[in-house]
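Quick check before the chapter quiz. The format below is the same one you will see on the exam, so make sure you can read both the input and the output lines.
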Amino acid sequence: MNDGTTTIWPIIIVGGVLISFIVIGMMQKAREGSDYLFAGRYIGRIGGGAAIASNWMSAASFLGMAGLLYLNGYFALAYVIGWTGGYVLLLVLMAGQIRRFGKYTAPDFVGARYDSPLARLISAVISIVISLIYCIAQFKGIGMLFAWLFGMDYQRGVLLGGTAVVSYVVVAGMLGVARNQQMQYFVTIVSFIVPLMFLAHNLGYFWPLPQIGYGVAIQDLSREFSVNFAAPFASGTLFQWTALCFTLMVGTAGLPHVLSRFYIVPNVRDARWSVVWGLFFIALIYWSAPAYAVFARLMELRSGMVLPPEAARKMADIIVLKAAVMGGVPIWMVGILAAGAACAAFFTVTGLLLTGAASLSHDIYYRILNPRASENRKMVIAKGATLVLAALVMVCALRPPGLIAEITATAFALAGNTIFPVFLLGIWWGRTNRQGAISGMLTGMVITFAEPLFGRFVPQIATIFPITSSALCGAPIVIAVMIVVSLLTPPPSEEMRKFLAREVHGHLG
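Here is the expected output.
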């Protein structure tokens, strides 16, 4: 993963950027448990959009997406379409309604909507598992980045980078993170696009908008090397592409740390506008990632360097950095690019660990085990849970099961098969009851992990429910289970049905 050398400027730049965030975080550190867990209160529409985008700009977006495009070309556009399309789905179906319902976490919503501690507990466990899987992907990105920076092996990179990010999470708390997320998005977008413009200029393509200029590079790949980067379904079937795209879409709309952003805006319009701004900010980076992949492939072929598939897969997750180095981008600018990657991974991990900690301390400890717990006690539990979850993630990241984006997609599949159906029917069908929600979430968990559990015994399961793309068939099955079970069991209370009709769907707020 690295050539055993270190370069001082990238280390200084990455260290300086991260230290500046830590200092700001310490100055704004959380004073109350609710701030630590739920990102404080309102930070404006554009600020909320920047917070959504910076929450979203993970190692998978910054590093992993370009890596998959580099390996699979057109097929990997399923990630771009799925992740951005998920926000449109969220905007149309749930953002405003979630804000009107007025609960702070996904388990809070499930517990209140279905009036069931068991449903709350199951959704809290699912939220924790989603956060853990997502964090493993981020820790892999952090490990590869620190290994590249310090010329060490991957495992030591994970330990060093993981220690740094956990230190920030514990000290700063969520209020500091929420404000830093706006600054972090600015750092991320500038660090991603400016080196790309420099790279396009060096290669002789239209550099003011390299997101357009790389189209000529695709034509050059085809003309000079007969590589058709835009060939549809060259790396998979139509079903596989559709299943992956759909899974990422519904997974985005069901991701707990994304949903939690809508609880801290003052009204429905601000919730929706935050999504619109967030989608705009996200699209700026997603529009740029394919250019890195195409430029990297073209430079490799022009230099006569054709890597074996396994070697290409091993370094795909840092192809963004490799493209910048190969393209003659100044090393200090490569350092800025690395700093952007570090910020993306660091702050995504922060949001995920705090979401997982919130599920443990708020949804399980406070709501179920000790309703009389003080704010200080909840804070202690939350920080302890953060450390435990971080340690568990670090251990799992030492032997990552796949590419960054592939690991992340598994978390989306779990969210799409469980949280999304429960929210969708919970908001739009008042007849859904606790029995339906519980049976649906349990069915969704089984479907998500059906391939590793049963795939070796029944190969068709691996085809229908692939681990990263199971929601195309899984989510409709879960919704059907919820409907059937709800119709066969007593309806929810009349009070809840009236609340949905009056408060959630009654006016624009």
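If your answer matched, good. The CA atoms of residues 182 and 345 lie 15 Å apart.
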